[in-house]
């Protein structure tokens, strides 16, 4: 009888608990619905603190919030969930140098290209430049040529290049091979161009822009091209205020429309109605910490919330050969030994003696290809032997130069045209534009901008706390000229044009110097087709001046993750 009573009690308690859960769920749904009726969850500016919908004209008529969702993964990119990892050397440092010491770093979630940028993708970029800034037009001189890869990187005074200087970049046989001969500066320019083209396509799909190259009312040339920074600053500045680039949805003549960028024009009652648009990714080079984190892919070694050991390569194996492959091929394309770039004929070990097509080898645990071998890759950072996590251990990056839009006397941003564009002459004599016509002219932030700012105090932070006068032992010297830099590197001067001969005259620094590290020295990571196994370790780092290029350095783009950066852990319930 007692057992029966216990069973009955258990039955009633179980059903009461279920009923409570159901009742509670109903209350939550009702509460949620009532909140949505008040404006929560909608695009209106409903204040939970005050209790009013401020997008209602009765309460101020403030502009509506965007209904855009979080940023989707860009084309050809992979999502890399951020986290903590040990950055730095895995192999023994026989030279016992201070460079590349292990340190704990945290990286936020981001997106990165699955593969290196190919010849085909870079040629599309050049075709666009050639169409928008015709090289035969004196107004756009140097723009197209500044973006061309240096195809002479394949020349060798003691080698036979097999005409690679003519074929590697432009022949269809190599279109899926990684682009090389591209400097760090050129790679950054490509990232900016890709940002604008991706945003342009997104706005066309969302019904904001018309297809620009298929519009009889406009000509896409010079300043007249889409730039997302100009659009976000003031859509009226695009194409010198020619509204035929916008669709009827955007240029509707609805007097009752209220939005943050609506404005009447001199041509009738046309209004811009661009209150809702999705955010577009900002492409850039990955930082050194991001690249190493993505290449290492420690999730291979994760067990719950712990990392079991450190990997030497992007793949999980401790050797360079794929032991699961019946032919026992290499995991990557690299130089195996002196004079051995691909193995013997009929039994190639890595598919190629120079570079190989993208995706020739399996990806790592993040789904990324060729994070070791094939070509090394540019990253954002300025090179310094030591990375001090005492200064920053979160999304570390060295090389920031903070700029702001240049404004006219009325406070409006200035968009460059062929009259205002300026050019820089690089130390190697190459002439490059500081910005393209159609882009916002930017200037470094000033002391007024950083006054009493707790975040930063100057625009150029490439040598911050490691090479600037304040970092040296003579920082208290009153005479600024007597301050010594930590890095006594050669002073690089721009070549001077000889007016008589029309040739550039190069001035070389003849003073004794102790290092080649400068504020223009950029890090590149990963081994390449011409490197030995040592450089396949993602932790290894080298540097080259940002205006130089080689036949073994390429690049891939990255983009920051917007919104929620981590998913909740998937817990597994176990029975006792």
Give structural notes.
By secondary structure, this protein is an alpha+beta fold. Among the domains are: 2-59; 207-277, no CATH class. Helix content is 18%, strand content 11%. The protein has helices at 2-38, 119-132, 143-147, 164-167, 184-205, 228-233, 288-296, 447-450, and strands at 77-80, 83-87, 103-107, 110-113, 302-303, 306-307, 343-344, 347-348, 376-382, 403-405, 423-425, 431-433, 442-444, 496-497, 504-505, 521-525, 541-545, 553-554, 558-560. The protein has a 4-stranded mixed β-sheet with strand order 17-16-9-18. Strand 7 (343-344) and strand 8 (347-348) form a beta hairpin. It starts with a helix and ends in a 16-residue tail after the last strand. Residues 16-43 and 253-269 have low confidence and may be disordered.
Summarize the structure.
This protein has 576 residues and is α+β, with helices and mostly antiparallel strands. It is built from eight helices and 19 strands.
Helices and strands in order:
Blueprint: H1 2-38, E1 77-80, E2 83-87, E3 103-107, E4 110-113, H2 119-132, H3 143-147, H4 164-167, H5 184-205, H6 228-233, H7 288-296, E5 302-303, E6 306-307, E7 343-344, E8 347-348, E9 376-382, E10 403-405, E11 423-425, E12 431-433, E13 442-444, H8 447-450, E14 496-497, E15 504-505, E16 521-525, E17 541-545, E18 553-554, E19 558-560
Parallel strand pairs: 9-18
Antiparallel strand pairs: 1-4, 2-3, 4-19, 5-6, 7-8, 9-16, 10-13, 11-12, 14-15, 16-17
């Amino acid at each position: 009888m007692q057992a029966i009573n216990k069973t009955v009690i258990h039955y009633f308690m179980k059903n009461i608990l279920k009923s409570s859960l159901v009742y509670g769920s109903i209350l939550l749904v009702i509460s949620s619905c009532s909140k949505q009726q008040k404006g929560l969850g909608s695009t209106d500016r409903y204040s939970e603190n005050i209790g009013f919908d401020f997008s209602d004209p009765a309460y101020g008529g403030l502009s509506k919030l965007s209904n855009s969702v979080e940023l989707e993964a860009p084309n050809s990119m992979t999502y890399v969930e951020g986290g903590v990892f040990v950055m730095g050397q895995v192999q023994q440092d026989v030279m016992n140098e201070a460079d590349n010491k292990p340190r704990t770093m945290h990286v936020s979630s981001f997106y990165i290209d699955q593969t290196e940028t190919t010849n085909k993708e870079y040629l599309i970029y050049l075709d666009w430049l050639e169409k928008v800034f015709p090289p035969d037009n004196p107004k756009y001189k140097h723009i197209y040529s500044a973006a061309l890869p240096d195809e002479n990187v394949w020349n060798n005074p003691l080698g036979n290049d097999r005409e690679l200087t003519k074929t590697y970049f432009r022949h269809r046989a190599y279109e899926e091979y990684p682009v090389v001969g591209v400097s760090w500066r050129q790679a950054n320019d490509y990232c900016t161009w890709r940002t604008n083209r991706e945003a342009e396509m997104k706005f066309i799909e969302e019904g904001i822009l018309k297809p620009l190259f298929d519009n009889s009312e406009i000509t896409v040339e010079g300043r007249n091209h889409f730039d997302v920074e100009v659009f976000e600053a003031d859509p009226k500045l695009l194409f010198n205020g020619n509204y035929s680039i916008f669709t009827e949805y955007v240029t509707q003549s609805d007097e009752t429309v209220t939005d943050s960028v609506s404005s009447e024009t001199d041509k009738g009652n046309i209004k811009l109605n661009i209150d809702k648009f999705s955010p577009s990714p900002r492409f850039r080079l990955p930082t050194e910490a991001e690249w190493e984190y993505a290449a290492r892919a420690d999730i291979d070694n994760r067990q719950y919330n712990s990392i079991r050991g450190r990997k030497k390569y992007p793949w999980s194996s401790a050797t360079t050969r794929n032991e699961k492959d019946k032919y026992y091929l290499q995991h990557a394309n690299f130089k195996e030994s002196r004079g051995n770039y691909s193995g013997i004929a009929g039994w190639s070990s890595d598919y190629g003696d120079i570079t190989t097509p993208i995706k020739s080898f399996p990806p790592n645990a993040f789904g990324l290809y060729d994070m070791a071998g094939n070509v090394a890759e540019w990253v954002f950072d300025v090179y310094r032997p030591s990375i001090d996590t005492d200064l920053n251990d979160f999304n570390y990056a060295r090389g920031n130069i903070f700029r702001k839009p240049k404004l006219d006397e009325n406070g409006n941003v200035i968009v460059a045209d062929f009259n205002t564009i300026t050019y820089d002459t690089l130390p190697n004599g190459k002439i490059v534009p500081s910005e393209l016509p159609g882009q916002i002219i930017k200037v470094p932030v000033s002391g007024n901008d950083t006054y009493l700012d707790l975040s930063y105090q100057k625009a150029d932070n490439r040598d911050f706390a490691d090479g600037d006068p304040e970092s040296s032992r003579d920082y208290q010297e009153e005479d600024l000229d007597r301050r010594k830099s930590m890095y006594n590197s050669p002073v690089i001067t721009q070549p001077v044009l000889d007016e008589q001969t029309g040739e550039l005259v190069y001035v070389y620094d003849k003073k004794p110097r102790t290092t080649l590290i400068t504020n223009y020295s950029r890090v590149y990571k990963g081994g390449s087709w011409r490197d030995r196994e040592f450089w396949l370790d993602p932790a290894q780092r080298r540097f080259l001046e940002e205006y130089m290029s080689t036949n073994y350095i390429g690049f891939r783009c990255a983009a920051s993750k917007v919104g929620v950066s981590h998913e909740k852990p998937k817990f597994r319930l176990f029975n006792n």
